[in-house]
Design a protein that fits this description.
The chain is of the alpha+beta class. It is 21% helix and 29% strand.
């Protein structure tokens, strides 16, 4: 499967609770995996011309089970521009998403 998935968490200022829930589920599902180069969760702040930015998550194709479980939609591979790493498989830490 080569399909990426995306989930818009809405206003970046209000996304913390849902983001923490998804990160916890990610760690449960993939925290012990050694496939860190294949299973990861990325984010980007996207405005789409609006006043406030949305916090948008991108799930790699190998994370499709979690993506589907949290209601993420299929999408194309996101451009690397301004894409940040949230967490990757086999890691117990998350990365700082502040900008």
């Amino acid at each position: 499967m080569n399909t990426w998935f995306t989930k818009n968490l809405g206003d970046a200022m209000l996304a913390d609770e849902e983001l923490e829930s998804i990160k916890s589920r990610f760690l449960t599902a993939y925290g012990q995996s050694d496939a860190s180069d294949e299973i990861a969760l990325f984010y980007r702040h996207e405005s789409g011309g609006k006043l406030h930015c949305d916090y948008v998550l991108y799930f790699t194709p190998a994370a499709h089970a979690l993506a589907q479980a949290v209601g993420a939609a299929p999408c194309g591979k996101p451009a690397a521009t301004d894409l940040g790493l949230v967490i990757e498989a086999g890691k117990t830490q998350t990365y700082d998403q502040s900008e």
